[in-house]
Design brief:
The protein is of the alpha/beta class and 280 residues long. The protein has eight helices and 16 strands.
Amino acid sequence: MHLYTIDTGFFKLDGGAMFGVVPKSIWQKLNPADENNMCNWAMRCLLIEDGNRLILIDNGIGNKQSDKFFGFYYLNGDANLDLSLAKLGFHRDDITDVVLSHLHFDHCGGSVIWNSDRTKYQTAFKNAKYWSNEEHWQHALDSNPREKASFLTENIMPIQESGQLFFVENGNEVADFMTLPKVYGHTEAMMLPHINYKGQTIVFCADLIPSLGHLPVNYVMAYDIKPLESMRDRQSFLEQAIKNDFILFFEHDPINECCTVTKNERGQFVPERIFKLGDL
């Protein structure tokens, strides 16, 4: 088995929104903001090569939205999904499975593309099974006013209409080396892929812990629909991470890919080792 980092570019989000009630005087040191209070964030995905299977976890924001839409998020960087796959000798048609941690547009926008004459949408990975879970899927289709703008119909319905949608029920259907436990707070039933790799557990942290700067349990994003549940699940997960020596893989950290976790003398969660996936 081989694991690869897939960079799909960067985008910007309001720093206050990303750190919630944490004062700017603190979070500014973690991810400096520009003159518009916007911070740069990665859209880092994970590719697993196992025999004849290629499993992609999340796929970035995609490229099918309007210039006006993308203008809100200041897309930047030279990387994109296709270039990152090509550097490894792969093509999107080689992908056998797409695991969607959740259906917010910056995580699943690359799932769907325009057809050749831009008259209708089609799935971007024509040979893949797309994996979600029924609880989250139904939540995305009938969401709350606060979160609704993150669930775009054009990112979701073409997957179902294609017949390529599959639901995880027990959390281990995708592969015997992967489990997909659900966490709550950021959204309903977000999946947090746990991958057994070289005798270690790598956890794709999605938006439970989007960056190294979000390790403190109370550094909860304003985007989270149930912040107290986010804190509960973060606390539980980070305790497990220390006990089991998990490797955390960050989807949104603009610099840091992976870390292990420990506690400092005050009992706060802090990084123990910071490294790149390729260093494993």
